[in-house]
Amino acid sequence: MCGVLTGSFLNIILDYVFVFPMDMGMFGAALATVIGSVTTVLVLSTHFIKKQNRVKINKETISLKLVAPILKCGFSSLIMEVANGFVILKYIGNNGIVVYGIISNCVLVGLALFNGVAQAAQPIIATNFGAKESSRVKKVLKYAMITTTIIGISLFAVVFLFTGQVIQIFVKANAEILSVGISALRLYLSAFCIMNINILISGYFQSVGKENIAIYVSIVRGFLLNIILAFVLPSVLPATILWAIVPLSELITLIGIAFYAKNSSTIENTALNEEFISA
User: Fold this and answer.
1) If you write DSSP's letter for every residue of 61-101 in order, what string do you get?
2) Local structure of 210: helix, strand or coil
């Protein structure tokens, strides 16, 4: 907590210092982010020099073979972000890029909260799954599902009710940006009500030893569906359909997960199946 808060507050302070008094523009904002992230890592690294540290870095376990799978998992997100930017520029123009930048910052807030719930539940589910405490696994998954659903709906409600104010936080919006941005934010960020569940379920699969399925879920929702829909839909529908691509991708992914959970007879998916049935 200290590491994350220190880096975050430093990022906020340096954002102001670099962008306004020092007039460094976008470079200053990027530099502030880098410094904040490095600071967080340094604070967290102090754990390894403390006597009560029970986690040791073992050079013998370092493997270059792990680099390729790590890059493979992240490469899909990189392609998605770059491709989305080009597609939006092509069909909606510069104002679309401005709006997409606002949306990206809002999504970062949502992802931080959704990942927080998923990552908090993950070690508890994994420990109890290993101990064959299925009732505890179901209980933790249920609480996590309720929590992430409340957060997702609350975030979307704020965006829906105060869309104009949210836009004004990031840019001095003119009438044209507002006309594009209000409908775009409401449509795109409706995904908050679905992506939170997909993120939680992906973490659940990792917790019960289903890493391959977790990777498939991440690739499908974060890469394949988005890219396919981004290039296909604008050619047959109005360009504004681009703002619905992420919610559609998340919804299709969720339907696929529900279908898998319903038709799987394995013990590790019992809790997941029951959660979907009750929902």
Assistant:
1) G--GGGHHHHHHHHHHHHHHHHHHHHHHHHHT-HHHHHHHH
2) coil
Tokens linked to 177: 């940006």
d(CA 112, CA 17): 25
Sign of the torsion angle spanned by Cα atoms 84, 89, 91, 93 = positive
Q: Report how far residue 181's alpha carbon sits from residue 88's, in angstroms, rounded to the nearest whole number.
A: 13
Instruction: Give per-residue pLDDT as tens, 72-84.
Output: 666 655 665 666 5
Query: What's the angle, vertex CA 227, arms to CA 226 and CA 229, rounded to 5?
Result: 65
CA 207 to each of CA 52, 110, 117, 204, 211: distance values in angstroms, whole numbers, following the listed order: 27, 22, 14, 5, 8
Structure confidence by residue, pLDDT tens digits, 73-125: 666 556 656 665 665 666 666 677 778 888 888 888 898 899 899 989 988 99
Residues 6+ positions from 11 with CB-CB distance below 8 Å: 32, 33, 35, 36, 37
**Nearest CA to 196 among 136, 161, 154?**
154
Give the three-class secondary structure for 55: coil
CA distance 269 to 199: 16
